[in-house]
Amino acid sequence: MSHAQGRPVVVFGLGDFARMAAFYFRHDSSYRVVAHTATSAALTADEFLGVPVVPFEQITERYPPDEVSLFVAIAYSRVNRNRRDIFAQARGLGYRMVTYVCSKATSWPDLRIGEGSFVFENNVLQPYVEIGENTVLWSGNHIGHDSRIGSHVFLASHVVVSGNCRIGDGTFIGVNATLRDGVSVGAECVIGAGALVLRDVPDGSVLRATATPIADVASMELKRI
After folding, report:
1. E strand or H helix that includes residue 208
2. Any idea what the Cα angle at residue 167 is, between residues 163 and 169, rounded to 5°?
3. What pLDDT, on the 0 to 100 scale, is given for residue 2?
């Protein structure tokens, strides 16, 4: 359902994530996108998806924080640091950061989710799950009971996070990765597509699957960034 009249929101970003966020806000929320914004250096047009594009350096003049909310729709560049930095700047300017959980996701009333996070469709969020601020769960993930996902995290599609797991701030987890129950992944890690995580992962690590059989998972490469 389209919400022609709704709470006004400005979306930071001009890429695919921004385009997707605008679509979901239009069809599955009470928000109405009134503008997009980006830093002056990144501007390529003065209009995007039929609404104005405003330099972020001028955002408070054109769309004051007491009139609109803001959502940061940039992905996982620099291990999510770009999204983290813009999120901090926008909140520092006084903006309320939009939090969105798709109506087609499965969750429970006890879900704890931080400001500015975005959960796509077909995510299964079991009881006692906690999600931090400015975190993105793309479509089709399973988040097991009692798991805690930090802030500024990005989970690609079809990630399995088993029960009682911990994922540190700023971490990226790729498509089809699997975390065994009780595993802790540190901050600012990169867990590659298809990786099978059976043990704790220190901060700042890269874990990628190799072509070895499942019985040989101990040979998975684990190294510092």
Report:
1. strand 205-208
2. 155
3. 41
Structure tokens at 178: 């699997």
Contact 116, 134 (CB under 8 A): yes
Q: Return the domain boundaries, the chain.
A: 7-92, 100-209
DSSP calls for 55-95? EGGGHHHHS-TTT-EEEE----TTTTHHHHHHHHHHHHTTP
Q: How many CA atoms lie within 13 A of 212 on its CB side?
A: 13
Domain 100-209 CATH class label: mainly beta
User: How far separated are the first and last CA of the chain, in Å rounded?
Assistant: 44
Architecture in CATH for domain 7-92? 3-Layer(aba) Sandwich (3.40)
The pLDDT tens digits of the residues spanning 59-77 come to: 999 999 999 999 999 999 8
Q: Indicate the pTM of the whole model.
A: 0.90
Which residues does residue 142 pair with via DSSP β-bridges, in sequence order? 124, 160
